[in-house]
Design brief:
mainly alpha, elongated, about 425 residues
């Protein structure tokens, strides 16, 4: 498998973190424009237009600078300039003790500068400029987390139902888990972002917009003809589900094809990638920060360092996938599974019992398909033991894990072993 080359498009992600970007433009673009105009006279008009655009950008940047009185003391002038910035400047990152401690706590390589780590701590709600926030890095890190987590789950448990796979994905790299990781890393949030804040703090604009949206959504769901404020009410038909009734047309296939990696709605305004300048929650801000760190490690250190970082901080966490199952009719599902696999119909048999006539009886029931025992369960009644035995048989089938499971990312690189196709199961039982 060929590795992805990021040399052409990673420049936007690793843009130089300097506040006056016109300095780079003034020294880089005019020289290129003069070179093109000298080689081809027909490009002179285009070069003049580019120079005018650069001049307008410089004028706009000059207008945005704060007006500072000349008689103000130097330390107050510096504080006024910092307060005018939405996030800390580049020079402050090298003086931050918190940032240096976080860099050492995560065991990051010296090739990953503290300036990039400081950019990971600036949320898009604090600084809307994509060249100074973690929007691009978090987008890359989120895709890497989704890719590495999904291949680890699917190759280790190839028979898991889709709903359990989505739940396991959310348990590993969901917003709540990444928020807990942020706390374990010792990262604190600021009350209000700004240029005077220490770069070692996570900066975002917090608000209650998410809770208000959920509250209004619950209120509007009580009426079938409810319409948003300022819009015309519409007639609701039986085959026309409203946004409040999206569950009518959403199933496992829709969650796999149309929704995000956790099976959530992609058109929801509460989605982390959709929030830029509006206030956000602590969970989404922490999630974007952890994703941005992953993207920074991948860009500065490469694929192997990113996979190591993922194994140390994400996939190494213990997750009991067996507790994520919820069977409504386990005996019926087991019968359908045996019929699909060409086995005999399952039969429940009592293996042992004690205290049948007492107040606390215990029954042990086994489920057999022919002579092969599929599962075993115990309970205070025969029906409870039979249900637990059916659940145990289903979990034994879905939690099958091959001994020599490999993931596709292990076949990347020049010295990787040849790829051996992984087991692909037919899927869960659809009743």
């Amino acid at each position: 498998m060929k590795a992805l080359r990021l040399l052409r498009w990673s420049g936007s992600v690793l843009s130089p973190r300097t506040r006056s970007c016109s300095i780079h433009q003034a020294y880089r673009y005019p020289t290129k424009i003069r070179f093109l105009s000298a080689c081809n006279p027909s490009l002179q008009q285009h070069a003049q237009g580019q120079e005018q655009i650069l001049e307008r950008e410089e004028e706009q940047e000059d207008d945005d600078e704060p007006i500072i009185p000349a008689d103000m003391p130097p330390h107050l002038q510096k504080e006024a300039r910092l307060r005018a910035l939405p996030s800390p400047p580049l020079a402050e990152a090298t003086r931050s003790a918190k940032l240096a401690a976080l860099h050492a706590r995560l065991s990051l390589s010296p090739r990953l500068p503290v300036q990039t780590l400081a950019r990971c701590l600036v949320d898009g709600t604090a600084d809307p400029n994509p060249g100074f926030n973690n929007t691009a890095l978090s987008a890359l890190g989120r895709d890497l987390y989704s890719y590495y987590t999904s291949e680890a789950i699917l190759c280790r448990y190839p028979r898991l139902p889709t709903a359990v796979v989505l739940a396991a994905m959310k348990a590993y790299v969901g917003p709540k888990t990444l928020t807990q990781i942020t706390k374990e890393w010792g990262v604190e949030l600021v009350a209000e972002p700004g240029g005077e804040v220490d770069p070692g703090y996570l900066q975002c604009k917090r608000g209650d917009s998410m809770l208000d949206h959920q509250h209004s959504k619950k209120k509007s769901s009580n009426s079938p003809v409810a319409a948003p404020h300022g819009s015309q009410p519409r007639i609701v038909g039986v085959n026309q589900p409203t946004p409040e009734r999206q569950s009518w047309s959403r199933g496992v296939s829709s969650m796999t094809v149309n929704d995000d990696e956790f099976g959530g709605l992609t058109k929801d305004n509460r989605h982390p990638s959709k929030i830029t300048d509006a206030p956000t929650t602590v969970e989404y801000a922490c999630a974007r920060f952890v994703q941005a760190v992953m993207g920074a490690v991948y860009l500065h250190r490469g694929r192997e360092a990113a996979k190591t970082f993922f194994k140390e901080h994400i996939i190494s966490r213990h997750l009991d996938i067996g507790k994520m199952f919820e069977f409504k009719r386990p005996a019926h599902d087991l019968t359908r599974l045996c019929a699909r696999e060409g086995l005999d119909s399952p039969v429940a048999r009592i293996l042992s019992e004690t205290g049948r006539l007492s107040r606390h009886p215990v029954f042990i029931v086994g489920v057999f398909a022919g002579r092969e025992k599929l599962g075993e369960g115990s309970g205070s009644s025969l029906n409870e033991a039979r249900v637990r035995a059916a659940v145990g048989a289903l979990k034994g089938w879905y939690l099958y894990s091959p001994l020599d499971a490999r993931v596709p990312s292990e076949a990347e690189g020049p010295h990787a072993k040849p790829w051996k196709p992984a087991l692909i199961d037919i899927g869960e039982v659809i009743c």
